[in-house]
Structure formats: C-alpha cells, structure tokens
Amino acid sequence: MSGRATSLLFVAALTGLLAAVSALPYGGHAAWLVLVLLGPVGVLTVLVGHALAERRPRRSLRRHLATIAVLVGAQALVAVALFVQQMFFNAHDAFFTVVVVVFAGAVGLWLARLLGGGALADLDAISGTLDAVGAGRRDVRTGVAGEDELARLAADVDRMVERIAREEDARRQLMAAVSHDLRTPITALQLIAEGLEDDIFEPDRRREQLARMTTHVRALGALIDDLFELTRLQAGEIRWTAEHVPLDALVAETVDAMRPQAEQRRVKVRADLAAGLVPARANPEQLQRVLFNLIQNAIRHTPADGSVVVRAEPVGDGVEIEVADTGSGIPAEDRERVFDAFFQGGDRAARTAGGAGLGLAIARAIVEAHGGRIWLEDAPAGTRVRFRLPEGVPLPA
Fold it and tell me: Hey, how many other C-beta atoms are within 10 angstroms of the C-beta on 300?
C-alpha cells in the first residue's frame, strides 16, 4: 500500500471514529455532519500534504515546513467555519469560536517553531561542518549535543571528520617516512657511484664499496617489495590457499627458528601452548610470517636476560595467539598507532630487524585478511601483542 493510500485510509478511519463518537450523545445528525464536513476537508488536506511532501524543497526547508504549518492551520479554520455555519451559531459565538481556534493555532505554531527551530539549527550545523570538510578543513566539529536522531547523526559526522583527519595525517607521515627511508640508501648509492666514476677508490676499497652498493640495493628492493605487498593486502588483491594448520606445530617450529637470534641477544624465547588447540584455517606461510614479525620485534626490544613467550589458546569459536616480552613496553599515546606503517613511537619501533617499518603493519594486514584482528593487550610490564583467528573462516578464493 502506498503512502498516499495509507494516509487516506487513516483520514477515513479517524473521520468514522469521530462520527461514531458524535452519534452516541447527539444522534445520527451529528455523525452525518462530522462525515460531511471533516471527511472532504481531511482528504483534501492529505492530498495537498502529500504533493508538498513529494516535492523536494528547492530553497529552504524552513519555508517548506512553514507551508505545511499554514496548510494545517487553514484546515482547522475551514473546519471551524463550516461547523459554525451548520450549527447556526450567532455572530457573537462564532466570533469567539474563531478567536479561540486562532489563539490555540498560533500558540501551537509558535511552539512548533521553537521545537523545529532547534532541529533546523542542528541541521545547519551539520551542513556547515560538511561544507567546511569539503573545502579542506579538518578542525571543524558540529557542536551538536543530545541523544536524539540528529545528535547521533552529528556524532557520526564528527567521528567521520576525525577519522579523515587521522587518515590524512597517517598518509602524510607515511610519505615522509618513505621519503626518509628511500633518501638514505639513495644518497649512499649516489656517493659510492660518484666515487667509482671518479676512480677514487683503491682496488680493495672498490670491492668494499660495491658490496655496500649491493646492500643498499637489497634494502631498497625489500622496502619496495614490502610496500607493494602491504598495498595489495590492504586492497584485498592477494589470494592464498587456505588449509587446516596445526597451530602447536607451527608455533613450536617458529619459536625454534627464532631461538638462535634470541640467544645472540641473550633473550630467552619459549612457547606456552594450551591443551586442545584446534587447527586454524589459514595459509601456513603467511601465518608463520606474522609470528616471525611479532617474535622478531619482541626480541629486538627485550633487554639481555629478558624473555619472550608465545602463547596459543582456544577462545570461544576461534584461537588466540599472543607474543609477550619483558621489554620497556609501549607508551599509552602510541598504542593506537603501533600497527601503522613506518610509525616510530617512544623507544619502540614498528620495525622488524633490518626492515623498513612495515613488519607490524603487514602482520595486521595478514591477520585481517584471515578474518581476524590484532591488538595490544594490557600488560603491567613489557608488551603483549595478541591476535585472534576465527575458526573455520575461509580465505578469499
């Protein structure tokens, strides 16, 4: 049923109800008057109202609402005038009836203006904020308070502006970090190349400089590969083969592989696996890469005689894996950004050893591609990075 048909049905039902109520004390003539007088007025008002509602206001919503208010007032005056005529009121009674109706209508319109004015002011604030954001400003907020629908919409707009500002700031920092990480090896390569071109190196030094060139080229290649992979991960363009991975074996194998690096730094690394671990549906190579990145980052930031523990346990309908260290921890102001690419906060880095600051960002992208999430767990000391893999969620095919 269309909106117009529903409105007409409502008017018919309301008119019939009022006619029935009028018939009880005053008989059939009163009911007939209600049907004859109110029915046509109500139908006409509804049809005009729907025509206004279906026609989008071209210039001003305020003018649109004012037109509707005038329409409602006119309906009331017409209905009263018809009743006055049919009920044979004398001039005195008719005048004061109209006065009472006009007074009640004017007060009602004033109150509606007060109530509607607040809503329209909120709409103006939201519209002004969006216009400012479209013009490039990121420091504007709606300033709308409350718990109604417009206040919730304004809060959504404010959160959107804050998110846009954070994302733009992250992009600027990303570009600055990429520029820095590219500038250092490129500058070194340029100096070495100029030295080789000018033949200023002795034969032994020439071989040494060539080796340095190779190192810088590999670093640049690794940075570009990581950036390319991170971009594809975030865009959902990488497809993996998923299989059931025994987590106990994968975690133990990864910890054993990382133990020599930990021993070089006099850090103890061990696995603490809960009983009854179910296999996770994942890509084993990518899941192991996440573990490598997290364990490597933990070892780098754990002092000598410290420890790194890798835990895995079933939780609900999934499994959670945690890498905990006894290092200096991560400052509270850096916790939300520690997984951002190139982010450097406090004395902790979002870099894996020898990497370009993309280790934790890639780890997050891989976990999210598996349908999971990764976060920092609260810890009284050190750092606890935990990620969750839902059970039975297939990878994109």
Answer: 19
- Output 62 or 275, whichever has higher pLDDT: 275
Better-scored residue on pLDDT, 56 or 233: 233
pTM confidence score:
0.53
Cα 166 from Cα 346, distance rounded (Å) = 19
Position of tokens 């804050």? 162
Closest-CA residue to 245 (of 211, 286, 186): 286
CATH architecture of 243-390: 2-Layer Sandwich (3.30)
| Residues whose CB is less than 8 angstroms from the CB of residue 50 and which lie 6 or more positions away in sequence, other chains included | 3, 4, 7
169-235 and 243-390, same CATH topology: no
| Residue extents of the structural domains in the chain | 3-134, 169-235, 243-390
**CB under 8 Å to 261, separation ≥6 — which residues?**
296, 299, 353
Which residues lie below 8 Å from residue 385, measured CB to CB, with a gap of 6+?
Answer: 294, 297, 298, 322, 323, 324, 360, 374, 375, 376, 377
Report the percent of the chain where pLDDT is more than 90: 14
Angle at 298 between CA 323 and CA 358, to 5 degrees: 100
314 and 276 Cβ atoms separated by less than 8 Å = yes
Strand partners, 313: 320
β-strand 318-325 against 307-315: which pairing, if any? antiparallel
pLDDT band at 325 (very low <50, low <70, confident <90, very high): very high
Q: Is 268 helix (H, G, I), strand (E, B) or coil?
A: strand
The highest-level CATH class for domain 169-235 is mainly alpha
Q: CA dist 186 to 194, 219, 394, Å?
A: 12, 10, 42
Q: How far apart are the first and last CA of the chain?
A: 43
* Rounded Cα gap, residues 377 and 28, in angstroms: 77
Could you tell me the pLDDT band of residue 384, with boundaries at 50, 70 and 90?
very high
Residue pair 145/122 in contact (Cβ under 8 Å)? The answer is no
Residue 281: alpha-carbon gap to chain centroid: 27
